[in-house]
Amino acid sequence: MKKKFYLLLLLALPILGYAQSGNIKGVISDENGLTVPGSTVVIQSLKKGTVTDFNGKYTLVNIPEGNYTITVEYLGYSDLTKDITVKANETVTLNFTLNTEDTNLDEVLITGFGLSGQSRALNTQKNKQNITNIVSTDQVGKFPDANIGDAIKRIPGITMQMDQGEARNVIVRGLSPQLNSVTLNGSRIPSAESDNRNVQMDLIPSDMIQTIEVNKAVTPDMDADALGGSINLITKTSPQGFRLSATAGSGINFISDKRILNGSFLVGDRSKNDKFGWVVAASINDNDFGSHNVEAEWTDEFEYNAGDEDNLVEVDVNPYANVFEIREYKVQRIRRSFSANFDYKLDDNNTIFFKSIYNWRDDRENRYRLEHEILDGEDIGIGDFSVDANGNLTSFLIEAKRQSKGGIDSDRNQNTRLEDQRMQNYSLSGEHLFGNVQLDWMTSLSKASEERLNERYLEYESEYGITFNNNEDKPLYTPLSGEGNFEDFELGELTEENQYTEEKDFNLFVNARIPLSIIEGNEGFLKIGAKTRIKNKNRDNDFTEYSDETDALEFLGMVTTRDYSDSDFLAGNQYQIGNFASAEFLGNLDLYNTDLFEGEDLPEEYVTGNFDVNENVYAGYAMLNQNITDKFSILAGLRLEHTSIESEGSELVFDTEGDIFGINNVKDKNSYTNVLPGVHLKYNITDNTILRFAWTNTLARPNYADLVPYREISNEDEEIYLGNSELNPTTSMNFDIMAEHYFKSVGIISGGVFYKDIKDFVYIFQSEDENGYEVYQPLNGDDASVLGAEFSFQRRLDFLPGFAKNFSIYLNYTHLTSSTDGIRNEDGEERVDLDLPQTSPNMYNASLGYACKKFSLRLSSNYSDSYIDEIGGNAFEDRYYDEQFFLDFNANIALSNSLSMYINLNNITNQPLRYYQGVKGRTMQMEYYEKRLTIGLKYDLFKK
What is the pLDDT of residue 138? Predict the structure, then answer.
């Protein structure tokens, strides 16, 4: 199949056309030397035109000999024209510079340098053939977003899943993170997550990215595994002149009253002969914070022992929390990033590019967890519980655990659990012009890893009675009088584990663009290409439990402890966590001294989680882009993707006593081919009003952990956990309609609807086999659908009088409805009226800004509605991600033409991360992060 793909490309290359015609190439930049993407470059007399790419470059091919006038059109600016002479078989270079005096706006505001980020983004978006949202880094700078995930959530139809108060996993149009693709300069970003395909967006600082491109309707030349959409992050490219940029700032996290440090720099230039360009950038962010957390699990079943353990007595009770936890996190997160990009022009027809980025994040964490869980029914007697007249279970016996989480005492770990995440990408690419054929290629190597070494847990246990407040929103266990003394907790377990996950991607693709028109007098081109992606993902964990040989750790009261209670606990001051073994004590334990501790390897804790998966994808495509009239164009094509998978895991079998009976290696293979046609229509009602339609077909490959053919069989608990290497990819047929109107004052109002017909989505099926064992396995569901509508409005209110014209509004809203078929409950019955997991029905961004020559202010809000996150065995067990409303403020003050000051205040609403079970009022988790304030300086110097 690979040979067929590349043969398709080679067959077209002889069409090189060295007729009596030439080519025109050039770069469009602003007065500061920054390139301008999204400009329209046209020869009106020939009805020929093109659009500058993200590097500000354009190419016009197959131009007959003669003299012509070239026109550059850019939203918000007057047209620029230049005359040029084209000679046969030659390529002539013609560059343009857009200056602020060319603007057709009444006034230029000093909200950035040169052309505004909004201008760049909207011009690029306007000239795209497919449905896309573009956000430039300058536009991102208007919002107080430290990482690229927080920036992306401002885009219509995007919501984010949070981790420790930062946006991590991206949901596009309601579809879960593993159903979307993320690329860097067009090359896939691997995932450092251990069991899924999610790309950690909080790993990448926002100031390392030049442009964010969200393709909601992919074209055949893009990877097809983008069920919700494809997000392309474009790093900063070399300027047309010298540029030096730097930021430095600090701040405070109000939850910890500890500092924030951040800084970045960028320097770049181009040689005098215009052949060599370079840009180097680096960034660091050091954030010392934490979170306050309460968790619960709920059940409506209760039973006790009336004297016969084999026949427990069931009691009808209202739902109650059978598990209740209080957690406190202490976190330090250091994010570093380095990028170096180079380009070299061999001649007018050939340019080579090298791009690289290295992201490194250290996440140091100490966690203190007080966990309570009701005892099994056989351990609860008649006098060990109470139920009131309303059926509320008000007291019962529990097992309590006080667990300290940390790491060894070393320069790197610092007595914390150190999660070392890295993502790196290196690419070599080229752009070539052979006659009238444009050829581009790229080869890239990417790697993502997550390493957690010497992660330690020290846990103490006790049993006692508690009273339960029966408050579903704010559940609370309170020990009975005289019980629950931390000093009486006995050593439960002391463990150390090591985890390492790695994903490597090798990509190679080549594209050829050939002038081809099937309608005389109207421009068109054929684009063909092929791609190979070689991927490996593996996980290698271990787990050791240590026994105390000296009994020095027998009781919690015998070790060094600290009271981690906080009277300002954000979930409520009724949640006081109490005393735990300190992080320093845990980190200094000499676990490897055999006189003090004896270690035992526990493969049951990790062996089925280890895997090795090879996934190779071979793709080829052909697409035709044809202007039907001056206003109407069509892009139609076909993409073919063949996927080959080899996976390796383990089988783990326990006997009826709970001991390991056997461990076996298991392997499997799978492959499939997808044929993916697509059509995009674009109609320019006027120069600034556009109607778009798209019919596309996309897919999403299953998570790696689901593809591993592992088996875990517990004959004691009568449970079986299975992987499924035979899973099919989830596929979707997508329909999109979008209308856009662009304001001359640089703004947009747009609205559209979309529909996704999804097949073979993956969910965890819970069932019972013929032996009465509970079986858990990922399966393909039947069908699902998503119907949505989007609206967006952004513009400066320049039609208002006086100072009011300096206000600007940024609004977008997305509404979704979804449904699923083929999901069955634990009894095998199909569930109805169930939404597709992770589809938020309502999302919006609203921002009000004010900008004048000396300063700018912006108040920004972001909202996402609650949605089902995980499907349980029945409706009572379903887990939901609660609604979120974030409010942020930022200000920028121009101190000079090159120097400005910024002030950012994040999470003004102290929005918690909250999950609930079954019904909205029943809390499963509530985690609070408090506000964050940062202040700093920005410096930008240009010399062209």
Answer: 59
